[in-house]
């Protein structure tokens, strides 16, 4: 049986989550949000009255669907959990004629998830390199006085929309492992929340960084980072490291497209991949499958 997760299911959901990623799953931080989401679908699969797996369908915009949080109790020898939940979500998607995209992201070695979703027709449309830095290893930096919170939205807008970072990311912006289609409305949200940093000389923008509020409590996330040279990249990165340390974050993370200057600067400041380059995959479902 598949039905929506209810508040009283929290203990069992968190029990399953405690077995994922050595107990470091983000589910405890988002359970209440997902249950209360009036538009999303947080659903679980029960067998013999035991919750054995679940997943979440989220509306990033009224027409853009995001799939996330697919989990199965690793202690139970039950097959087909992901497939049953995926069929359930496909039926829901087919009832909405206004959908313009259905996507999810995954790590390169999540073979089971990749095989399952490719079986349903999902196509890989983008790969990025996920990088992280443990902040306990880093001292505070001196930063340049030309760094400031962005003030002129139209200048920032022009800079972002002409950037290689956005172009090479195929017009997507990552907020942690959730990937949003770029829009001016999304950029305005970052701007209004004072999450955009710029480096300017003589009123000319030389570099921009955007950070995000994400569901992982110990992680500081960089959603966008571009500069005209390695020196400006370094100044922006040092500022962001200081800012993350000030917020008592443990790790700073970023997904990087094929921008060699940025990769070089990140390597200089000891950002590392978990296992390899090009390890973050974005998948999309062809719309004819649900039309």
Plain-language structure description:
31% of the residues lie in helices and 32% in strands. The radius of gyration is 20 Å and the shape is globular. A hairpin with a 2-residue loop joins β10 (196-201) and β11. α1 (10-17) packs antiparallel against α2 (27-36) and α8 (230-246) packs across α9 (260-268). The strands form two sheets. The protein has a twelve-stranded mixed sheet with strand order 1-2-3-4-5-14-6-13-12-11-10-7, with helices on both faces. The chain has a two-stranded antiparallel ribbon with strand order 8-9. By secondary structure, the chain is an alpha+beta fold. It has helices at 10-17, 27-36, 81-93, 111-120, 153-161, 164-168, 184-192, 230-246, 260-268; strands spanning 2-4, 41-47, 50-59, 64-72, 101-107, 123-134, 147-149, 172-175, 178-181, 196-201, 204-212, 219-227, 251-256, 280-284. It folds into two domains: 2-99, Gcn5-related N-acetyltransferase (GNAT) (Aminopeptidase, 3-Layer(aba) Sandwich), CATH 3.40.630; 130-268, Gcn5-related N-acetyltransferase (GNAT) (Aminopeptidase, 3-Layer(aba) Sandwich). The chain is built from nine helices and 14 strands.
């Amino acid at each position: 049986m598949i039905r929506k997760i209810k508040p009283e299911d929290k203990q069992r959901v968190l029990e399953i989550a405690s077995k994922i990623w050595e107990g470091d799953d983000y589910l405890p931080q988002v359970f209440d949000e997902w249950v209360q989401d009036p538009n999303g679908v947080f659903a679980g699969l029960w067998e013999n009255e035991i919750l054995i797996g679940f997943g979440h369908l989220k509306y990033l915009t009224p027409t853009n669907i995001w799939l996330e949080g697919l989990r199965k109790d690793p202690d139970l020898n039950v097959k087909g959990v992901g497939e049953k939940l995926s069929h359930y979500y496909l039926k829901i998607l087919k009832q909405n004629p206004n959908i313009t995209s259905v996507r999810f992201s995954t790590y390169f070695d999540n073979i089971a998830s990749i095989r399952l979703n490719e079986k349903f027709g999902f196509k890989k449309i983008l790969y990025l390199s996920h990088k992280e830095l443990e902040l306990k290893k880093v001292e505070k930096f001196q930063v340049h006085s030309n760094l400031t919170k962005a003030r002129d939205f139209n200048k920032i807008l022009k800079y972002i929309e002409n950037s290689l970072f956005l172009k090479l990311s195929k017009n997507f912006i990552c907020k942690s492992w959730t990937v949003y289609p770029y829009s001016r409305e999304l950029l305005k949200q970052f701007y209004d929340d004072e999450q955009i940093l710029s480096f300017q000389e003589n009123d000319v923008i030389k570099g921009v960084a955007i950070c995000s509020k994400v569901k992982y409590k110990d992680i500081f996330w960089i959603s966008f980072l571009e500069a005209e040279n390695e020196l400006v990249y370094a100044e922006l990165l040092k500022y962001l490291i200081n800012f993350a340390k000030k917020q008592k974050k443990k790790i700073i993370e970023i997904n990087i497209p094929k921008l060699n200057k940025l990769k070089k600067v990140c390597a200089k400041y000891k950002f590392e991949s978990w296992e390899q380059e090009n390890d973050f995959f974005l998948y999309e479902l062809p719309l004819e499958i649900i039309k």
